[in-house]
Amino acid sequence: MGFRSAVVTFPGSNCDRDMAVALEIASGTPALRVWHGDAELPERLDFIAIPGGFSYGDYLRSGAMAARSPIMRAIVEAAGRGVPVLGVCNGFQVLTESGLLPGALMRNASQNFICRTVSLKVENSQTLFTSQYDQGEEIQVPVAHHDGNFFADTETLDRLEGEGRVAFRYLDAVNGSQRDIAGIINGAGNVLGMMPHPERAVEPAHAGTDGRKLFASAVARLVDA
Amino acid sequence: MKVHVHVSLKPGVLDPQGRAIHHALEGLGFEGVNDVRAGRLIELDVADSVSDEALDEMCRKLLANMVIENYRIDKLETA
To answer: What Pfam families is this protein classified in (chain B) (predicted)?
Structure first.
């Protein structure tokens, strides 16, 4: 059987291969690859990943076009059934644009594209994506984005905080995000969106391997189930 | 029918692009500019049969992100 994961590729995705490699390292099983125009996902998926990049050239708004693509209808439906969905960077933007996660990702407050390794705090280690981390653990993960400035109204922010739905927070201000939020989960806990790239921190040749535990968490959950 | 959809950031939402434009105007020596907000104009050419409700839905479903943006629909005179 193995861990059945799928990585979506949109025109302009550029982290899809890295994501597939990270999933294979964690699970020992190659990830399936799905094209944006596909109307259906492979059956019996244990995990869906929406990678980083510049889907549809960031036309209109980052993630806006991808969120309305055929495959996203299938992903919204799968998420509703409880299938874990991870969106990284542009994938996070797609998740907010599709309504699977609240808020929006705006232009960085500095107006600059930011590409460097940042320190994150694991704010909730009880999620299916973070169970292998310690609560409050500090990790180093790269960011590379122009539109990572998380915005939501105060009521939404308070609800996210109150319900433990802030998964990761920047230890230092990076991009102007409200309350330094780097990653959030949905109410059901099976959808995570984050701007930092855990798939770029899984090999000794990378800047670090702090991203490994995220993928290991998702795999461990399935093995334990 | 020509339709202009004006999309702008909601009041209170920080607009880094508008701020940068503001700084640039000041740098060029223009005085008296109190604030700058940048938006987007989308021009549609639609059949006369397209309803106001449909135009509204286009804005809500795609053209504007209702979390951070407002929109205004201007229907222009058909030549």
So the answer is: PurS
Spell out which chain B residues touch chain A, with contact meaning CB-CB distance below 8 angstroms.
13-14, 16-17, 20, 61-63, 65, 67-68
Nearest CA in chain A to B60: A97
Assigned fold of B2-75: Mth169; Chain: A , (3.30.1280)
Q: What's the CATH code of the domain at A63? A: 3.40.50.880
Q: pLDDT digits over A172-206, tens only? A: 999 999 999 999 999 999 999 999 999 999 999 99
Contacts of B17 in chain A (CB under 8 A): 107, 111
**What is the predicted pLDDT for the residue at B79?**
54
pLDDT at A126: 96
Please provide the DSSP assignment of chain A as one string: ----EEEEE-TTB-SHHHHHHHHHHHHSSPPEEEETT-SSPPSS-SEEEE--B-GGGG-SSTTHHHHTSHHHHHHHHHHHTT--EEEETHHHHHHHHHTSS-SEEEPPTTSS-EEEEEEEEES-TTSTTTTTSPTT-EEEEEEEESS-EEE--HHHHHHHHHTT-EEEEESS--S--GGGEEEEE-TTS-EEEESS-GGGSSSTTSS--TTHHHHHHHHHHHHH-
Domain boundaries of chain B, sorted by first residue:
2-75
Report the domain count for chain A.
Answer: 1
Here the ipTM equals 0.84
